[in-house]
Amino acid sequence: MNADAIQVVSAALAQRLKDAIATADHPKIEGEVFVGPLDDQNAKDKALVVFLYRVGVNADLRNSRHTLPPAADGGPLTVYDGSLPLDLHYLITAGSEQANNELDTLRTLGFALQTLNDSPILVGQGEVVRLSLESVSCEELSRIWTLFPTANYRTSVVFVATPVWVDPARINVSGAPVVREPHKVGQIDVGAARG
User: Fold this and answer.
1) Rounded mean pLDDT of the chain?
2) How many domains does one find in the chain?
3) How far is CA 176 from the centre of its chain?
4) Distance between CA 166 and CA 162 in Å, rounded?
5) The domain containing residue 21 runs over which residues?
6) Residues 32, 33, 38, 39: is their CA dihedral positive or negative?
7) DSSP 3-state assignment of 109?
8) Are strands 33-35 and 48-57 parallel, antiparallel or unpaired?
9) pLDDT band at 132; cut points 50, 70, 90
10) Which of 3, 73, 152, 163 has the smallest count of CB within 10 Å of its CB?
11) Whole-number Cα distances in Å, 184 to 61, 100, 159, 189
């Protein structure tokens, strides 16, 4: 992916949750999905709030090449050296100030967990990004919530999207392999050395 990789993955995650809420029934889940900070005025009446709170480098993939499948059948692979593999950490919070009660918000959160567990792969632009539930300590969760001093605490979970590749702006094009050395640099003429 290019520089918009974080935006593309965030939008795909939100869309996955929006599609699931739109089809939920027994009873239907009211509200929409908001991407952004929990204390944003636009988040107040949403069923779910998705907030990207941390972006980190995936240490396991840091020195790996990023290979994309061919754009067309039989086309060449695109290989990037120096790509940045990222892990995106999302806080997913259910409910709003407008919720009827805590039980409704817990049902919505459970529905989000079920949706992302059932379909943990985001696919797009030739990329595959895996979503997984991450266990976080109460201490870390409280540190996240301190970012929003005006928001009341609501039960939340953390999902990690990985790997999210940010490729270099320019593709390194390799030259043709050297098949012969016309200047004979570094070669010794065996006949001249004997005489």
Assistant:
1) 83
2) 1
3) 35
4) 12
5) 5-194
6) negative
7) helix
8) parallel
9) very high
10) 73
11) 40, 83, 58, 9
